[in-house]
Amino acid sequence: MLYIEEGHSSTSIYTFLTEVMYEIGQRWQENKISVADEHLATATCDYVLTRFQLSQQPLLQRRRALLFCIEGEEHYLGIKMIAGLINEQGWEVKNLGANLPLPFVLKSIEKWYPDVVCLSVSQVHLLPDL
């Protein structure tokens, strides 16, 4: 948390966390850490992101962005970082999170009328669903 308290930019913090998670993923692929270790690292990064994003003062809300991970996609930290950056630019943001079935996405779009819809997928086997 000291890194955040030192006043680093959002981009710097998100880049740092991205590099950390790439390293965690690499270690998991090489069987140097367990899936439990990977989940702990993800939860820790999520906590840091939440603390940082709560400390930010967004500009006046003007436009709307709806973000989510497609059904089957559990890797949500990237979309959470994007939500934070968009929010800092004055957008009203709804981040619906990971593994969202399409009917719920469509219902959210119909109810909320976002200006932009952002979706995330990180696994090759989910690309046909994209």
Describe the structure.
With 130 residues, the protein is mostly helical. It is 52% helix and 12% strand. The protein contains 5 helices and 3 strands. It has helices at residues 2-5, 10-29, 35-55, 77-88, 102-112, and strands at 64-69, 92-95, 116-120. A 3-stranded parallel sheet has the order 2-1-3, sandwiched between helices. Helix 4 links the parallel strand 1 and strand 2 (92-95). Helix 3 (35-55) runs parallel beside helix 4. The longest helix is centred in the middle third of the chain and has 21 residues, at 35-55. It is flat and about 45 Å long.
Q: Please identify the structural class as seen in this structure.
A: mainly alpha
Tell me the overall shape.
flat
Using only C-alpha atoms, the radius of gyration works out to: 16 Å
Work out the number of β strands. 3
- The side-by-side strand order for the widest beta sheet comes to 2-1-3
How many strands, what sense, and barrel or not for the largest sheet?
A: 3 strands, parallel
Unreliable runs, pLDDT <50, ≥5 residues? none
> pLDDT average, as an integer?
89
Number of helices: 5
Quote the beta fraction.
Answer: 5-15%
Q: Helix coverage percent of residues? A: 40-55%
State the order of secondary-structure elements, H for helix, E for strand: HHHEHEHE
Distance between the termini: 35 Å
